[in-house]
Design a protein that fits this description.
Layout: H1 12-22, H2 25-36, E1 39-40, H3 41-45, H4 52-64, E2 68-73, E3 76-81, H5 83-114
Antiparallel strand pairs: 1-3, 2-3
Helix pairs in contact: 1-4, 2-4
Amino acid sequence: MVVDQKPREFTDEEIDRIFGALADATRRDILRQSMLGEQSVSGLARSYTMSFAAVQKHVAVLERALLVTKERRGREQIVHSNPAAIRRAARLLDAYEELWRDRIARIGDILSEATPPPQNQQHQPRKDRDIAP
């Protein structure tokens, strides 16, 4: 069962690109670094044990998801985070969290209705120790 709870501002393709981009640890780290301040692609590449081309590909995935933008500055390509897109992704995750919180609350309601109230338990003497001889 697929439940459509996404905010109306997203298309399915945008959601796929955002989560696809964030599914990789290197891309999440590149996004984190770009959120701290603008970074050149060559500067980012020095942070990883992969080729410059591989880092460029990761940045391109983030750029297609609109999570970062690139700007050419001389010979450098400067990567900037896109706070608006990051907020949109956060709102999407908030919507999913709200969906699951509602479901958990409804399950709790159903369980509390199905559970009989505790009966007034009177002390029942145990034969082995509570009965006086």
